[in-house]
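Chapter review: from sequence to fold.
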Amino acid sequence: MRSHETLFPFGASPMKSMLPVVWSPRLSELLPADPVVYRGPSLPFGVALLILLATTARSLIHVFLPDGGAETIATIDTSVAGGANIIGLFGQWGAIQLLLAGLIGVLLLRYPGTLPLVLCVFAAEPLLRALAGHLKPIETVGTAPGHAFNFALLPIVLVALYLSLCPARTKDA
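The token string follows.
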């Protein structure tokens, strides 16, 4: 028989609270002994699912928009020499994002205890992209909406990560 945490990883169980009952994070939950069981509150799962949906939508835009979103969204001039290559790279980037979103979705559904690790990845991604952008800047006409959105979302992801490391109830509950 599977535990109730496995059957209701997203907090659908009436016993799973939205917020922790103990506000001390357990770093051992980053790599849990049993990744099938998520012991944290349901709110971080909701945050992760919303980010996953946004990542999936963004990847589909990069794959299916005629310019991959390079000019229409990221404000990169694709009329320059090599513009078709820029568009091609955006399409490939979208395909990679789609694969990663699918993998993270399967990971969360099959191994919900990996939620804190997934949230670490969600927090690291915009930081690493900012570092790459600093080391290899891209000339744009304006500011892409994703740039501001990613950094506005970062504190929310960090709070969700903190909450995901805190138990939703005590062991005897």
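Two observations follow directly from the output. Confidence is low (pLDDT under 50) at residues 1-7. Residues 83-110 form the longest helix (28 residues).
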